[in-house]
Specification:
2 domains; axon guidance receptor activity; Immunoglobulin-like; immunoglobulin domain; 5-stranded mixed beta sheet; Cell_Adh-Cytoskel_Orgn; 226 residues; mainly beta
Length: 226
C-alpha cells in the first residue's frame, strides 16, 4: 500500500506543476491566427468550408462574422473545431451567402481578426504549360481556372520583354478576347489551351489571363514569362 501511495503522490505532484505552467504560457499574448484561404470560390447549391487556424492558444474563443454581422448556427450553417482548426461550414450555398467573412479569436489579452472573401467570380488562372516553347514563333499556353459556373469570356494579354543582363524593358500589351472551349478538369475547374502565334524567335514574353463568368471578371492572373 505504501508503494501505491508514493506513486499516486508523485503523479499528483507532476500534474500540479504542469497545469499552471501551460496556462501561463498559453495566455502571454493575443491569439495568433491565420486563414487557409483569403479568397474562396462558391456557387449556389454547393457546400463550402472556411477555415481559420489559431496558433498556440487552444483556449481562444472563435467567432464568425459575415459583412460585420455575427453568425449563429442554422440548418445550413455550422461552426466546427478540431484542435487549432476552426471551420465555418455552409451547406446549399445561396446568393445571400456571398460576401466578406471574418474569423475573430479572443483571449484574456486581446482579439485578432482575419478576413476571407467568398465570391462567385472565377479564380485566377494557374498556368500549366512549360516555360519554354518547342517552336520558334508560337507558344501553346495551357492553364486552369476555378469556376463552377461556365466561363463566358477569356481575355489574353501578352507582351514582349526586351532584356539583357543589365536591364529589362517591357513592350506594349497585346490583348485578345477569346470565346473559350470549356473542358472540365474536375467539378470546380476548367482547363483550356490557346496557341499564341506570330512571336519573335529567341525572345521572352509575359502573359496574363483574365476570365469572366455570370458573376463578373476575376482578378488578373500573376504574369507568366514563357
Amino acid at each position: 500500500m505504501k508503494g501505491e501511495g508514493e506513486i499516486w503522490a508523485s503523479n499528483h505532484l507532476i500534474k500540479l506543476l504542469i497545469a499552471p505552467f501551460f496556462s501561463s504560457f498559453a495566455s502571454t499574448a493575443p491569439p495568433d491566427i491565420t486563414v487557409e484561404k483569403t479568397w474562396v470560390h462558391a456557387s449556389e447549391g454547393f457546400d463550402i468550408d472556411l477555415a481559420c487556424i489559431v496558433h498556440g492558444d487552444v483556449n481562444s474563443e472563435m467567432l464568425w462574422y459575415q459583412n460585420s454581422f455575427l453568425l449563429d448556427p442554422t440548418d445550413r450553417r455550422s461552426m466546427l473545431s478540431k484542435g487549432e482548426k476552426y471551420t465555418l461550414n455552409i451547406r446549399n450555398f445561396q446568393q445571400s451567402d456571398f460576401g466578406n467573412y471574418s474569423c475573430v479569436a479572443d483571449n484574456a489579452l486581446g482579439r485578432t481578426k482575419k478576413y476571407i472573401e467568398v465570391s462567385g467570380r472565377p479564380g485566377p488562372a494557374t498556368f500549366l504549360s512549360p516555360a519554354y516553347s518547342n517552336y520558334l514563333d508560337r507558344y501553346n499556353l495551357t492553364y486552369t481556372i476555378e469556376s463552377i459556373p461556365p466561363l463566358d469570356e477569356i481575355k489574353l494579354l501578352y507582351r514582349k520583354l526586351m532584356m539583357n543582363e543589365t536591364y529589362q524593358h517591357p513592350g506594349s500589351w497585346e490583348d485578345t478576347i477569346l470565346v473559350p472551349t470549356l473542358t472540365r478538369s474536375d467539378a470546380t475547374h476548367f482547363i483550356m489551351s490557346h496557341v499564341i502565334r506570330g512571336l519573335s524567335p529567341n525572345s521572352v514574353y509575359e502573359v496574363m489571363i483574365q476570365a469572366r463568368n455570370v458573376h463578373g471578371w476575376n482578378e488578373v492572373s500573376d504574369s507568366r514569362a514563357p
